[in-house]
Amino acid sequence: MPPVITGFDYRRVPVAEGVSLNVAVAGSGSPIVLLHGFPQTHLMWRHVAADLAADHTVICPDLRGYGASDKPAETGPDVYAKRAMAADVVALARALGHERFALAGHDRGALVAFRAGLDHPGTITHLACLDVLPTLDMWEAMHGVTAAVGFHLYLMAQPPGLPERMIAASADAFFGHFLDVWTGDPGAVPADVRAAYLDACRDAVPSIVADYRASAGVDVEHDLADREAGNRLRMPVTVLQQDWGAALGYDAAALWGAWASDLRHDTVAHGHFMAEEAPAEVAAALRDLLTR
């Protein structure tokens, strides 16, 4: 059996036609949904979720295409658009009895959370994004040889076929690479959790690639439309991220400030997997957000 978040109840919840999400739920009080990143599952929130469940209803799903959630075929660009994945999250919360909720996401989950904040401003009360830029800004910030750090973004942006075959041929080496090089504290991802991540990714190569492919196409279109329309995040927003701007030559706080008026942006010294490396700090930042 793969590891689970201790004390959480697990269930499958239908959220769209042919799509059910695997979700862990615990606690009581105002709800917060936590969305995982790549190459992870909901397990990345295990420490933070247990902390927050002391006084909040905490909802931790596997995203569409990841973990034990359904992985619909990529029949078109919208199947793994962040818009569709954000709609999944809203439907999930509603099915669990919550019309309004706070939302925090890391990496891929943060892109879903960002889109949910723009598409569902009356539903998302507070928003936290960990270690990303919005999709449109990310692509504009990547240039020159420094963009090599994001080689996977370009690989998975290719048309269907080649990236799936290449990654599936050495899935553990591919996904394990990111678990190794993005972790500031290797002990933060113990062997059983690492194995669970690799197992989940090995079984989800087509859907993970489809998720990334959407971020090189339809997700950019949606972000660009919002930028041109002047749409902004209306709720309090917290962003925690490493100082990638120093390496890639951009001002992360300024880029985020263009999207959010009520913004608290903090640069952290941890590795990419900060919810596992510094869970107390991340939980404290989320608690602070929920008071705003």
Itemize the secondary structure elements and their pairings:
Elements: E1 9-16, E2 19-26, E3 31-35, H1 46-52, E4 57-61, H2 82-95, E5 101-106, H3 108-119, E6 124-130, H4 135-141, H5 151-155, H6 162-169, H7 171-181, H8 191-202, H9 205-214, H10 218-229, E7 237-241, H11 244-248, H12 252-257, E8 263-267, H13 274-277, H14 279-290
Parallel strand pairs: 3-4, 3-5, 5-6, 6-7, 7-8
Antiparallel strand pairs: 1-2, 2-4
Distance between the termini: 40 Å
Q: Provide the spatial order of strands within the biggest beta sheet.
A: 1-2-4-3-5-6-7-8
Number of strands: 8
Q: What series of H and E elements makes up the topology? A: EEEHEHEHEHHHHHHHEHHEHH
* Residue share in helix: 40-55%
Shape: globular
Strand-pairing-aware structural class: alpha/beta
What is the helix tally? 14
Average pLDDT, rounded to a whole number, is: 97
**What's the main sheet like?**
8 strands, mixed
Catalogue the unreliable spans: none
Q: What's a quick, concise take on this entry?
A:
43% of the residues lie in helices and 17% in strands. The protein has 292 residues and is an alpha/beta fold.
Describe the fold and architecture.
- There is one protein chain.
- With 292 residues, the protein is of the alpha/beta class.
- It is 43% helix and 17% strand.
- It is globular, with a radius of gyration of 17 Å.
Output the keywords.
single chain; 292 residues; alpha/beta; eight-stranded mixed β-sheet; 14 helices; globular
